[in-house]
Amino acid sequence: MKKYLDFEGRADRSEYLWFYLAVLLAQVAASMVSGRLLDIVVLLLLLPSLSVSIRRLHDTGRSGLYLLIPIYNIYLLFFVGSDPGPNQYGEEPVE
To answer: CA–CA separation, 2 vs 72, rounded Å?
Structure first.
């Protein structure tokens, strides 16, 4: 959550997966409390989710616009490795 609205740069696969694990846990916990709380959590996490997804696509060397292609972006986000070294979107993320 340190890069809440940072759409620049790169996010490696582990950062992306850990973020979505935390989002999933927050949504499950909120849904156990109430449906209205779940709606609030989803809305609060919408922009950070877009941000980390776009940075993950940047890490694979692709534009954030690939997020608009439904099935292909899932493949890119989860299964394509990072570009080694710097690319047009910045330096390689440091663990």
So the answer is: 27
